[in-house]
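Obj.: predict assembly geometry.
Materials: sequence records (below).
Method: joint structure prediction, all chains together.
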Amino acid sequence: MAKYSDELDTVFIALADPTRRSIIRLLSAGPAPVGTLAEPFDITLPSFMKHIRSLERAGIIHTWKAGRVRTCELDRTRLSLVDDWLADERARWNARTDRLEQLVTSPEESS
Amino acid sequence: MAKYSDELDTVFIALADPTRRSIIRLLSAGPAPVGTLAEPFDITLPSFMKHIRSLERAGIIHTWKAGRVRTCELDRTRLSLVDDWLADERARWNARTDRLEQLVTSPEESS
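Observations (raw structure tokens):
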């Protein structure tokens, strides 16, 4: 449970940045080399690499090096952590809404 | 678009902490006073209030004061920002998977 919570922290931190979300979007088209990914962004390569490492630490992307080229690939399973967390919260919220609706509709039904 | 991106940043930052996620869970049962919400946590009230403010800044909760009691309430619409972002990424990912499947299955079909 603590591990799951730490993982969620890292994933949410990785997602809390527009450059990193753009990298995720670019990688949804398929694996790509760091150089190509960095092109649309007006930042230095070291700054860009920090974003790559944040995504890698969160497990959202995997990277590997062949010669001088580092390639990045999206790992969708990690984003499903966020999906699961949201689904869980939604279920709790809906359960409460259902209870409230019952409270509101029951008196009308018995009148 | 920039505003949407800033809002996503704030929401993801707010979600990147176990105490704040626990507060969201507690509030899914309905509005509650800060004092009651703080009880399960082994932190000082000023530290707890920082978490409340982070959630409030992100628009995930609303708070109001009546006398000496500040009450918090969850605003689910804000979490749907995350839902929408995930759905969008999932759609892009699935479109790519569909294209890959077509590439793999088409030669078999024609053989």
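Conclusions so far: The mean pLDDT of chain A is 90.
To do: check interface contacts against the pulldown list.
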